[in-house]
Amino acid sequence: MRAMNIAATGMQAQQTNVEVIAHNIANVSTTAYTRRKAEFQDLLYQSSERVGSSSSEAGTLLPVGTQVGLGVRSSAINRITLQGTLQETGNVYDVALEGRGYFGINLPDGTVAYTRDGTFKLSNQGQIVTSDGYPVQPAINIPVEVRDVTINQAGEVLVTQANGQQQNVGRLELFTFPNEAGLEAIGGNKFLETEASGQPNQGLPTDPGYGKIRQYYLEASNVNVVQEITQLIAAQRAYEMNSKVIEATDQMLQTTNNVR
Questions:
Q1: Do 21 and 140 have their domain in common?
Q2: How many domains, in total, are found in the chain?
Q3: Could you tell me which residue ranges the Flagellar basal body rod protein N-terminal domain spans (predicted)?
């Protein structure tokens, strides 16, 4: 019976839904993580009587047809690119983006990756790098003996030297994309450009269409735990209901087999 196969597609879809929700909850404390949302589409339909077809020799038309759907499938896992809340850390090289944009980082193979994770550090050569040691683009080097480092909202990195003089040693740049959800996640809070995302537009913090920098802050995950738990319960109940359909179909088949 078709009902058993249809319900099986529903169970598979809800399993994917639960996996996406589990991934969101697992990353509730991940810096600048953006929650994912599973999306679904109904499958093909089988028609025994097509709507609008002739129903008699007189040429009358069927106002409605007879279509039976074949279930559901996962169509996409969308990334919800909403701003996360900013959390104060007190660390000099922690910066958060308030508004649109991504930091550019150089990978060892020469590829440019993009991230909103501003957990920056200093390398053994005094260069600003990510937690994985990848240099921020453009390269910014901090002199050895400085009393203070300030990163203003425009992304300018200002150092105060021992004699009290202030020096501008570089400026952070930002990148935006026509379709941020089209970026390819490669783990480690990093993304790669794709044809779906479009080519990056390079700009400076506080420019029109770009965010601003907040030193001593990090962007938290935008996962709402209460919302995720609610969706998890709904997905679990949908999974159970589809399993009940399979049980009911099995009982119907058993009844048919017992007919003498």
A1: no
A2: 2
A3: 4-34
Whole-Å CA distances, 48 to 64, 66, 69: 12, 6, 12
Phi, then psi, of 89 in degrees rounded to 5: -120, -30
- The span from the CA of 111 to the CA of 191, in Å, is 11
Residue type, 68: V
**Cβ-contact 8, 241 below 8 angstroms:** no
Distance CA 7, CA 157 (A): 58
| 17 three-class SS | helix
Same domain, 57 and 130: no
What burial letters (b/e) apply to 157-177, b meaning 16+ CB within 10 Å?
bbbeeeeeeeeebbbbbbbbb
pTM for the full predicted model:
0.87
Residue 83 DSSP class = P
What digits encode the pLDDT tens for the residues 99-155?
999 999 999 999 999 999 999 999 999 999 999 999 999 999 999 888 899 999 999
Residue type, position 129, single letter: V
The string of pLDDT tens digits covering residues 49-74 is 666 666 655 567 767 667 788 899 99
Tell me, what amino acid is at 82? L
Task: Answer whether 218's CB lies under 8 Å from 89's CB.
Answer: yes
Looking at the structure, do residues 48 and 100 belong to the same domain, yes or no?
A: no
**Would you tell me the crossing angle of helices 2-26 and 225-257 to the nearest 10 degrees?**
160
Q: Is the pLDDT of residue 201 over 70?
A: yes
Domain of residue 125, residue span: 86-219
